[in-house]
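User: Hello, can you help with two protein structures?

Assistant: Certainly.
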Amino acid sequence: MLFMSWFDDPIGPAMKPDNPEAVLLYSVAQSLFTGRARSYLIKQGIPYEERAPQPYLYQLGKKIGRGSMPTIVFPDGRIIRDGVAIVDFFEERSGHPAKPPGPCQHIVSLLFDALGAEGLSRPAMHYRFNFDEEQHDFILYHFTSQMNGDEELAKKVIAHVSTDVAPRWGVRPSTHAITEKLYEGFVEKFNAHLTQYPYLLGGKPCLGDFGLMCPLYGHLGRDPVPHRLLQMRGPWVHRWVERMNRPEPDTGEYINLPHSFLQDDEVPKTIIELLTHFALDFVPETIASHSGINRWLEENKPAIGTQCERYAGEAEFDVEGTAIHVCPQPFRFYLLERVQSAIQVLKGSDQADALALLDTCNMTAVLDLKLDRKIGRANNLEVWLD
């Protein structure tokens, strides 16, 4: 099931929106994964009203086993948890407006959707929690508001995430330098692309743009230190972040550019260079995570339908001489399976062109990395399949 109903097992009436046609988005501004869903709702003109998540997420967690941001509630009480599922629902209902028509562009879009949430998570966590002197008050304010004004609870949550969660994503003192180097390289290359095009693939956003909004809004586009970095070293990226949260195309800098995807399935050279840069750590991390999760699956043998938790096992990989230790996240492979399946259904020259493109970007390896167990969704949870 894609969604569930609030009224299946009532835990209290859902808060009603002021606009009876609007969906309620339960989240906060600083949420990493809400960036995708919020931007999609804005760009597609879907009425929504954002609400503070507490105590709703606690109640939802008791009800289905996981309360997380973003979650939306429809006026009739239906619920969809998770940004990917939210975008999937509205894409299916509206004819897939964020899907480029060309096969290579479609593959690139799906790959960036995965890279946004999974390929920039380390800098997102590093820049949030390792610059306390410069942005302490900003971070504390947002976490306190998230905790209903309980500053002491906010401090405990910040300490937990910075000392326990962030290291699971590979954020440790030994990795700070390589994390900053890779992120600054990303900013440089994405900035170069955006001097020519307002979005990844032309004059309108694709799924990949919305995926990139996960880290580039809530963390890297708002927290003071990374925000200043974008303003000073990636002004076109900074404008892209603004553009992605505006309902109109907001492409005034690009004279006479149509509000459509590039013609003839064009993938700009600047996108090839950006993907090649992503491959520096995304590919070795995915290879190591693939092995680590499969070992965990063999050791734990989760039952069919069991909730797929955020972490499974351990993995270590090397980037430019720096060893990075992570707790692998199966959701990476849930997203990559979309890329793999999309390539499998291509025929003839379309498939050959897509494979050649990924080979040029040094991304071919991710096509063969499939977990020993598939991941699906049931009752608003990611679950292990057979």
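That covers the first. Now for the second protein you mentioned:
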Amino acid sequence: MLKFSYKKMFKKMIDLEMTNAKLMEKANISNTTFYKIKNGENVTTDTLLRICNVLGCDISEIVECVEEDKC
């Protein structure tokens, strides 16, 4: 089963020296939504678009589909 991974987003933030708090402020993202992103949960495409605008990138640069770990 596939799931979303936002690891690319966090790598991009490091490259841009942007903190979690600064991204949340600039993209108008709530703590709850950011928690979902950190835990690989689904968020709206509107949220992803706002993040892309802040980071100056395409969606493929912040999210990817990966195989879900099997326990």
